[in-house]
Amino acid sequence: MQGKIVKGISGFYYVDTADGNIYECKAKGVFRSLGIKPLVGDDVIIDVIDEENFKGNVTEVLPRKNQLLRPPVANVDQAVILFAIVKPNPSYNLLDRFLIMMQQQKLPVVICFNKQDIATRKEQQELSDAYEKCGYRVMFISVATENGIDELKCVLKGKTTVVAGPSGVGKSSLLNLLHPEGQRETGELSRKIDRGKNTTRHSELFFVPALSDKENHTFVMDTPGFTSLEMRDVTTETLQSYYTEFARYEPECKFGGCSHISEPVCGIKEAVERGDIAKVRYENYCILYEELKAKKNYGKSRY
What we know:
Blueprint: E1 2-9, E2 12-17, E3 22-27, H1 30-34, E4 43-50, E5 55-61, E6 67-68, E7 73-74, E8 78-84, H2 92-104, E9 109-114, H3 121-132, E10 137-140, H4 149-156, E11 160-164, H5 171-178, H6 181-192, E12 204-207, E13 219-222, H7 267-274, H8 279-301
Parallel strand pairs: 3-5, 8-9, 8-11, 9-10, 11-13
Antiparallel strand pairs: 1-2, 1-4, 2-3, 4-5, 6-7, 12-13
């Protein structure tokens, strides 16, 4: 029987199958010898060993379209990065870290800001100005009033979308709105594995039947909230490549290999002064650059 892994905890994989049931499965030992670890989002083949209690074994992991390292999930089409406009105010620095992480994994991104109902138009415009200039699609929604939800559903339809963002921005409320049955399913799984009240400590995939058809199924993936993100495989030399809006103005820099920090006649700094590059984006770039520089110098001092 074929299905999709929707959750994995402590060696158990919960597989949503075509018959509408979720089977609790263990992975065959052969996966370990092959160096394969089943992931949330994997399409798999299972053998049912207990039909009454919905138990089985994962016998095959089907070929993956892609695999993300953070979070460790498979077969994802896009990411929705969810922040609040206010309460809490967005951390631009954290948002940029998310964007860098998704760029590293070559995943298309939609930036979605919640709590539109309690934010001013000016606050929304500042966010829009900052991130639309660098090529991202920016959406504003209110989970409380359901404003903008229909537009978001159009973005999600027929795709597998990982929803990521910090705690407290309304991520769980959004997922409950998109998939009300998820609360019941999560509760049932929690009781089944004897784990009390659910908090998002593991990635979990929800099928959204209202947005699916025979040809294109819609899934949304919940991931743990983040308060900080360490940048991996990024250096002071490569950081600017993640700020895609810089590329247009780099030919205006006087010096080759310009870091856009302290050099005179810098096309990037001039673009910031003109308002062509959002000031908050450049400020974040400078903060991250100094962080990477300090890390690099610390590594040198140890040897």
